[in-house]
Amino acid sequence: MATSNPHESKVWLAAYAPGVPAEIDEVVETLPDMIEASVKTHGKAPALEFFGAVTSYRDLGEQIERAAEGLCRLGVAKGDRVALILPNCPQHVVAFYAVLRLGAIVVEHNPLYTPRELRHQFEDHEAKFAIVWDKVYDVVDDFPQDVRPEQIVAVDMTEAFPWSKRVALRLPVAKAREARAKLTAKPRAKHPVSWDSLVGGRRLPRRTPRPSVDDIALLQYTSGTTGSPKGAILTHGNLRANAMQGRAWVPGLREGEETFYGVLPLFHAYGMTLCLTFAMSIGARLVLFPTFDVSLVSEAAKKSPPTFLPAVPPIYDQLSRASAQGSIDLTSVRFAISGAMSLPVATVERWEEATGGLLVEGYGMTETSPVALGNPIGPSRRPGTVGVPFPSTEIRVVDPDDPSVDVEAGEPGELLIRGPQVFQGYWRRPGESADSLLEGGWVRSGDIVTVAPDGFVTIVDRLKELIITGGFNVSPTEVEETLQQHPDVADAAVVALPRRDGGEIVAAAVVLRPGATIDVNTLRDFCRTRLAAYKVPKRVFVVEDLPRSLIGKVLRREVRSRLLGEA
């Protein structure tokens, strides 16, 4: 019987753009090694830009060393977990590399999470140290004593603004007060440890122990293929390999001359790799945005036109519309890579008309650091697919009920991935780690795919019932448990419904308790107090009952079919 074992023949190599190697070199540097090499090579070149304020690579290296020394004085040591709860800002970049320089472990968090969501993660990773946006300082400070970190560092990101903008924010007028309130807040604590005091000292002594390639660098929380959020364990070697793979995939990049736009959140695996590691590894200028806003991007583009833009389809659509209206010039963008959700062909066409550059789709998961496949940067790309495996990456397509068995060539099956970017398991979850990481280093994706004879991969379904909205993963179980906490809700099922632009929305079917009535908006408001905004159901349907299997499990696929009929 013919089976699809593309990892044995690697037929996809023929589709690679000219100059892309089949394999990357062995990973021998850690992330601190990588950033120090960029500082040495590109010292005077701009590393970061934030609302017009520019930080050179030399200054970035200096700040990392001083921040590492400050963290060392606080007691951070090799192997400690250090939680980061920060928007995109220069302090985030410095903190990330300073923690890693000490051999400590970064734990990234979404600063817009609710207190309940953040507490759940802190209970899991038990970080003793946290570096947090001052607007969420009080949330962490209010954690129970057995969960609260021993040291919390408050970051006022406006301190990284240009002097003129800092002055404008302090003007005694309503507009300035409103803008400042969105960006910073004074913690209730009398004497919180400030970021400025942390980085105001001396450089880290050279004798300080350094991490190794196999040491854990990051715990990145994800819903994985099933269940509630858990920390994916990623080493220096995993993350450095993925940056190297990204660099190899785009042979036309110019060392020290590219301008990346950081519109993706750095706390997300996609933004972290494309901006925090990949961009920094090639000496690029990284223009940071605390949130995506077309007007902010348009203003930044006047000074520093982007050449490389990693983003998600809704961002490309918004920018394409702005370009068509004449409010932004995008012709400087040569390369754009879309991920985290399906990329409509129409989005590709609009973007390439606006820029004259290429927009290609990639595929990954947090467990692969995250990028594993991509469309070639060139004529062999194939819109509508997620492309072919990255250099040094192999795939298999298997029977999801028995992943040791490869399916017949061309037939749908579960995608397995193997490569140097594959994670080491889930933090303190040996059972779930064993379920996801198979013998031989293969990781289960939970996605059902088909592979064309030439190796191009198309996603056709998801075994995992995660919802991907705006590039973020939403666990249906987590949202269902929140809905079930409402006193009028007896049961709930949460599924994805399609959007016209090819994305997904969170939708809920709820069964009310006998005699109860409920206003849908009130129920959504209830969810907002317990869940991040992107997890709150956009549509809520009140139903009489939920379809179940013989053992009582809610059949989400049937729920989805019913809701599609009502939507």
Automatic annotation (TrEMBL):
Domain AMP-dependent synthetase/ligase: 36-427
Protein name per UniProt: AMP-binding protein
Any one Gene Ontology molecular-function term assigned to this protein's record: ligase activity, forming carbon-sulfur bonds
Database matches in PANTHER family: AMP-DEPENDENT SYNTHETASE AND LIGASE, LONG-CHAIN-FATTY-ACID--COA LIGASE
One Pfam family recorded for the sequence: AMP-binding_C
Annotated ranges, domain AMP-binding enzyme C-terminal: 478-553
Coiled coil segments of this chain: none
Organism: Microbacterium hatanonis
NCBIfam families to which the protein is assigned, alphabetical: PRK05605.1 (NF004114)
PROSITE patterns (alphabetical): AMP_BINDING
InterPro entries in the record: AMP-bd_C (IPR025110), AMP-bd_C_sf (IPR045851), AMP-binding_CS (IPR020845), AMP-dep_synth/lig_dom (IPR000873), ANL_N_sf (IPR042099), ATP-dep_AMP-bd_enzyme (IPR050237)
